[in-house]
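Box 3.1 — From sequence to structure: DUF3617 domain-containing protein
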Amino acid sequence: MKKFLTVAAIGALVAVAGCSGKGENAGGTAKREAGNWKTDVKLVKFEVPGMAPEMKTQMTQMMEGASGMDQCLTQEQVDKEDVAAELAKGGGECKWSKKEVGGGKIDVAGTCMQNGQTVDMAMTGTMAAKKTDVTITTKGKVPTGGDMEMVMQMTQTHTGPCKAATTT
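Predicted structure (token representation):
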């Protein structure tokens, strides 16, 4: 069960890394604005049959541990971002049934396979050059039986110029 949850968590985070915080440029490809970005993560729903309460607490803390993190994106990094390429990479082997990214919106869904486990993922939300609000839903079967569902809301906000300590 721990391996399944790790796959689900990594899949969600990899997928978000590929499509979060973007705005629109003239070509319709989503782009973030260079500068400092603050990330907030909220675990909206986390249901896993048979999971020990302490393990659920650990997973909740791990997911929400990303809240308040700052990341500096240089103009060079922004120029190299490619949402379509990131979605194509996915977290493991992903097949996207829906990849609608544009017009200030994101609506992506698909199935990822990693370490022999299948996870259905969906991401919906809004994107702008200075703010993104995306909800990620991850569903799948747990090896011990039953269905797992995790819903996470990730908000990223452009907070201004890069801070010296966050430059990557």
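Summary of the box: The first strand starts at residue 23 and ends at 24.
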